[in-house]
Amino acid sequence: MDIENANCKVKVSQCTDMEVLPIEKPIKIDHEITGLDILVQELHKVFSKNYVNVQDVQKLMAGYKSDPKDWRKFAKFDRFRYTRNLVDAGNGLFNIMILCWGPGHASAIHDHADSHCFMKLLGGSLEEVRYDWPDNVQPEVFKVLNKNNNNTKSAICPCGNDTNLRCCQQDNYQNEVTDGQHGGQDGDEYDIKNMKEIGRTRLEVNDVCYINDALGLHRMENPSHVDGAVSLHLYCPPFESCRVFDARTGKPTQVTVTFWSMYGQKVKRVGIFGAVFMIVILIYWTDVTFVRVKNLSQRISPTYLY
Ligand SMILES: N[C@@H](CS(=O)O)C(=O)O
Ligand SMILES: [Fe+2]
């Protein structure tokens, strides 16, 4: 498999039988993209084709020069954790979002649900730490390739000498645990020191990087204690859940990814008190309706119903 030429309209594990094309290195930026809205338009054009080369997406993202006036309206920070803010849903073929990292905010070690993940730094700086898959957990792509973890990774890592399109690791998820099961068919034994760090990359404004499950796992961190950081992420195909890994043992947990805002509007969340309130109202309403129906039924046909 040659990830640099993978068709990112499909999951990574479905890219294994593609034709190998010559690789252009370093990736040249064909033309400058003059705004975030133009970048989104260009991405729609590219994704309207049957085949979308990983490099085409990298080039487009690299061709856009970060300008806060383009993305300020999407950049919504939270005090406690990084936020995911949807910019465009890409007709279901990709999604593009802005992530806002407060000082010291970080993601947990995660995978990318067999999708292709592109990231561009828009503001501040971020550090990406990449990890090997834990011994007893395998991504779908390794199962398909039927190769061992190490061989696969070294064969396909697209890192070149290009400093702008650096290979990096990152993930996307937020901290809503939806499934306490750990790994399904994956092994049940998780040893301390299961997570092996395999690289660190500092990203500066306008750097673009790419990761998928064949390249490993990662976490991102805003190393600044003072400044925020803003990054632009594109995932294709889009995914709704991924796995996070315990940094000490490598134990995986399935989590749902959520948005803090969509198209510049904060997503309304029902907190625990809101949920309890709604349940009380529902019980009250059901009870009132039941009594009404019961009374009505008694009037209509009392003997039949009782
Ligand atoms: N993949 C993470 C962000 S990162 O840490 O790469 C997310 O989508 O939330
Ligand atoms: Fe990520």
From TrEMBL:
GO terms for biological process: L-cysteine catabolic process; taurine biosynthetic process. Its cofactor is Fe cation. InterPro entries: CDO_1. Keywords: Dioxygenase, Iron, Membrane, Metal-binding, Oxidoreductase, Thioether bond, Transmembrane, Transmembrane helix. The chain crosses the membrane at residues 270-286. Binds 1 Fe cation per subunit. Its EC number is 1.13.11.20. The keyword Membrane applies. There is a cross-link at residues 117-235 (3'-(S-cysteinyl)-tyrosine (Cys-Tyr)). It catalyses: L-cysteine + O2 = 3-sulfino-L-alanine + H(+). One of its GO terms (molecular function) is cysteine dioxygenase activity. It comes from the Eukaryota. Fe cation binds at residues 110, 112, 218. Pathway: Organosulfur biosynthesis; taurine biosynthesis; hypotaurine from L-cysteine: step 1/2. Signal peptide: none annotated. PANTHER family: CYSTEINE DIOXYGENASE, CYSTEINE DIOXYGENASE TYPE 1. Belongs to the cysteine dioxygenase family. This is Cysteine dioxygenase. It comes from Manduca sexta.
